[in-house]
Design goal:
Blueprint: H1 3-22, H2 39-55, H3 59-64, H4 68-73, H5 76-83, E1 87-100, E2 103-114, E3 125-136, E4 139-143, E5 155-156, E6 162-163
Antiparallel strand pairs: 1-2, 2-3, 3-4, 5-6
């Protein structure tokens, strides 16, 4: 075969492979059967994606991770007002996942800065949070803490005290003596 003919054949072959891939066809050797992933791995992946969206202030994406019941009770605008203001996160890392049936506790370390007047000059701080996740219809979803959704969100005073404007405030933490 002449040199020009080989080039034409190569171009045609590459074009056919590109077209087949664009159509969703498997090109190349068949993939090796993958082992099913554990619930802990699935939760870790979804939780990290959720917190990555929060760090990027991508509340539309973060909202899609919330459980369907909460989303049916809470518009995107309400969600953004409830969790998208007051704190700017610069990083979030999932450290630990604990599965108990269809429930999961996810430990996350976040670095954040308060954006509330009076606190916005403070340096960023690190904090460990525990997030609730639940498996609903085979999919792990974030369970939003409903205390954030009250009309009267908790407020932080300049002295650093957390105040709750309604009678729904959580009971004070009991100290061990």
């Amino acid at each position: 075969m002449r040199r020009g003919g080989r080039r034409l054949l190569l171009v045609m072959l590459l074009s056919a492979l590109g077209w087949a891939r664009a159509q969703g066809a498997e090109v190349g050797p068949s993939p090796v059967a993958q082992q099913p992933r554990s619930d802990a791995d699935l939760v870790r992946e979804r939780a990290q994606a959720y917190w990555d969206a929060r760090v990027k202030d991508d509340m539309v994406t973060a909202y899609t991770f919330e459980d369907p019941v909460r989303r049916s009770q809470l518009s995107l605008n309400q969600y953004v007002r409830a969790i998208g203001t007051g704190v700017k996160m610069s990083s979030a890392k999932v450290w630990k996942v604990k599965i108990d049936g269809d429930q999961a506790d996810v430990e996350i370390e976040v670095e954040a800065r308060y954006m509330v007047p009076g606190f916005d000059k403070l340096p960023p701080g690190r904090r460990t949070l525990v997030d609730d996740w639940q498996k609903i219809d085979g999919k792990w979803v974030h369970v939003l803490d409903f205390h954030l959704l009250r009309a009267g969100k908790p407020r932080i005073t300049p002295e650093g005290t957390v105040t709750y404007p309604s009678s729904e405030a959580p009971a004070p933490a009991q100290t061990k003596q």
